[in-house]
Amino acid sequence: MIDLSPLCRCLISFVFHAGPEPLRKDFVVQVAPSVDALKKMCNSVEGELQSLLAYFGEQPDSPDTPKPEDFFGLIVSFSSSLQVRECHFSVIDGA
């Protein structure tokens, strides 16, 4: 899961050291909804990824579970191979 806390702390720290207090408060008030939305989206994507891994027979909580980029790379590779095979059989069948 992606932890947005360091990013939030970094942004807030930067703002609190970068300008006068009214500017800092305005910034925090302005970006807080966006940061909250990012946290919710991160949680949602994490849950959907867990469901997708389970659908394809992976154990989401296992240390052997592939990283998302590896998993999606495998899906793309499989899809490409399937398309090549489909073209190959189309040529053989004369379609």
What does it look like?
It is a single chain. Helix 1 runs antiparallel to helix 2. The protein has 95 residues and is mostly helical. Helix content is 79%, strand content 0%. The chain folds into 2 domains: 60 residues; 31 residues. The model has no long low-confidence stretch (mean pLDDT 81). It starts with a helix and ends with a helix. The protein contains 3 helices and no strands.
List strands and helices in order, with pairings.
Layout: H1 5-18, H2 21-55, H3 68-93
Helix pairs in contact: 1-2
Largest sheet: none
SS element count, helices: 3
Note the run of SSEs as H and E: HHH
Share of β-strand residues: under 5%
Instruction: Tell me, rounded to a whole number, the average pLDDT.
Output: 81
> Number of DSSP strands?
0
- Shape call: elongated
Short synopsis of the structure:
The protein contains 3 helices and no strands.
Descriptive tags:
mainly alpha; 2 domains; about 100 residues; about 0% strand
